[in-house]
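Example: Altered inheritance of mitochondria protein 11.
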Amino acid sequence: MAFLYRPSLPTMSKPETPRPTPTTHSPRSRNPLPIFLTGAALLTLSSLLTRRSLLHRQKSTMPRFYHPSNAHPSLNINGRLEAYQALGLATINVASFFMMMGGGLLWAFDIGTVEEFRRRVGSGKRVDGKWTGREKRDKDNEDEFEKWVASLTGRKKGEEKEERRWSAREINEEQAREERYAVVEPPATKERGKPR
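Written out as structure tokens, the predicted fold is:
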């Protein structure tokens, strides 16, 4: 029985490449972290505050030790104060939750500055004041929709208001003539309604 001996191949050294830094701990991803941590801290505090107020409310309904068991404890309930406290607690809870969620989303989408957020969301105008492509398309779509609605109703934008205004003026002029008042024509107006 012969054992086959295979010589080992020379090991090739791999080129050393620098390891990429993890994106979760980079300085750039630490920008939204304080928002997230502040939201988490506020959510924890507001949850503790809510729990404390609920326990206090529940404890106030229990009778004292020497109170007769067949009589309900006297409760002085102020509905307005209760509603105000409940609204305040709910507002604090919701605001802290959304602050935490906003910080988490900023971290997840790797948004570190306001400029990056504007660039990703695509604000309406560029710095030079011209419309970007998406907003121009939206404006074109709005104009197209307005034309479509106008074609359905059979009227243009200001046509209905103009008809109502003149019909009301004609009625007033007819009443004035019947009652023998002098009808005075209004002064000529510019486009924007200011007298010339």
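DSSP finds five helices and no strands in the chain.
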